[in-house]
Amino acid sequence: MKKIIKKNKLTIILGILFATFISCSHQQNTLDHLKLRENILGFQALVATLPYPPKISGIIYGDAHLENFVLLKESENLYPNDFDSLKNAELLSDFYRLLLSTEFVFSFQKHPTLSLEHLKKAYQNGLVLKSVVPSNTSLPLNSSALKIAKFNKRKEFQRELTAEELKKIQDLLHTEAPHYKITSSYLRVKKSGGSKGKKRFQIFMSHHSQNLSMWMEFKEQEIKSDEILNSFKTYIANNYFNKSLNFVLIDNSLYLKRELETFKKDQVIDMDLEMLMTNPSLVEKEFLALGQFHKAINSADTINLLLNELSLITPEIMASNLEFLKKSMSKSSIEIMKD
User: Fold this and answer.
1) pLDDT digit string, tens, across residues 125-139
2) Bigger pLDDT: 103 or 229?
3) SS3 of the chain
4) Could you read off the pLDDT of 156-173 as tens digits, one per residue?
């Protein structure tokens, strides 16, 4: 009897130790994912030092990780959702960034359905498939009272807008929303993340006569070339769901305008780690969406060169590059802060 009790105790202790190990492993993976999410420039520098560095350059998304996509319920398609980091660079740096994000969150060894070859194929499919334009993406008509409450709740006041900043924004919005007036505004600066230090103008507008309102955000961009700007404008016009996107130049910096409530709440789902962990099949759709984005914003010649480069990349090459990136990012000492 005593032997049975001792054996049971040992089993319980081993079970607790194993559960603790799994929990710590999961926490470390989540921390590594956050490091990746916060560190864009550090990752981009690593790409050039890969054992098998990518060669074909084009316009990249710049911040491809698992949580930077949205799912549109009606079509079940996924779309990129953050464009602060568009730039000219090696196209496959986006692919490897999303691959590393997947490895940190899932671990390919524990999820054989998320194989390197399988996700590469999904990305390739995106490069050859035409992007589907979603329908029925009209803006919600929430009451002004509800929106202003949300606006104030998220308020991180930095300073008031200058007269020049406010006039440039008013001039742009006057042509797009002539029946609205700006009733509240402020500037906030990102304290963390890939766009740390970037300015964000928050604008609240109310309709002159109806109980309608719009919450606008103007995000400072890294875009420096007309080629990227023109390609992105074409992408917005032809492929992307958010027709409210536009640009304005303030103090020689380019700002992307967007409406913060583009969809009805029951229309779109923001990707988060919890949702992805319970629906791993969504990861494949993200790789497909990344390929579609690259195709939409780059020339046909560039995409053909990229497809040729991909055809030469074996699972062994991907695994070697991924292992290098994983070790390098895990060793980084970036401070993790939530915005």
Assistant:
1) 999 986 554 433 333
2) 103
3) CHHHHHHHHHHHHHHHHHHHHHHHHHHHHHHHHHHHHHCHHHHHHHHCCCCCCCCCEEEECCCCCCCCEEEECCCCEEEECCCCCCEEEECHHHHHHHHHHHHHHHCCCCCCCCCHHHHHHHHHHHHHCCCCCCCCCCCCCCCHHHHHHHHHHCCCCCECCCHHHHHHHHHHHHHHCCCEEEEEEEEEECCCCCCCCCEEEEEEEEECCCCCEEEEEEEECCCCCHHHHHHHHHHHHHCCCCCCCEEEEECCEEEEEEECCCCCCCCEEECCHHHHHHCCHHHHHHHHHHHHHHHHHCCHHHHHHHHHHHHCCCHHHHHHHHHHHHHHHHHCCCCCCCC
4) 667 888 888 888 888 878
